[in-house]
Amino acid sequence: MEKFTRLTAVAAPLPLANVDTDMIIPARYMKALTRNGLGRHAFRELRYAPDGTERDDFVLNHTGCRAAQILIADRNFGCGSSREHAVWALADFGIRCVIAPSFGDIFSNNARKNGLLLIRLPDDVCERLRDEIALSQFAPISIDLIGQHIILASGEAITFAIDPDDRRTLIEGLDDITRTMRHEGAIARFEATT
User: Structural domain tally of the chain?
Assistant: First the structure.
């Protein structure tokens, strides 16, 4: 898994509450056996009209946000069914961090396992961030996971809290197998005694 220490990138405001995993990646696009290529279907119904043309009113279709790696979302992002494909689609699209007031529980666990940083901030702070990003014409912001702060284009720093284990997992780039293999010696000793 790719390590996450610091990211400077465009952030896209997504002021929609209750974005569920089906909205992130519709079930009909989950037939792939690999993670590659799912990004083209991320937010499919929001990004494209039924005839396949891009919707002008969706933020990730705006010129300044096509390469966004950060989403500033609203409450309950990633709610709904437990599909890891939702995190895979975001990652394949290029999203490395989502900032929102709250997240779906299963989505949060899948995000950590796949290196997607989730930052929880109060509703009013997320709303202010979305407004400031739009006013700055999508100037890049920085996420410093080691220092646990967000640096806006204006230079303002906003601190955030994160579970220490999640922070370590992301900074060190540890997936579940790598985390388990850190205890390889203890596992071998246990196997030798049974």
Answer: 1
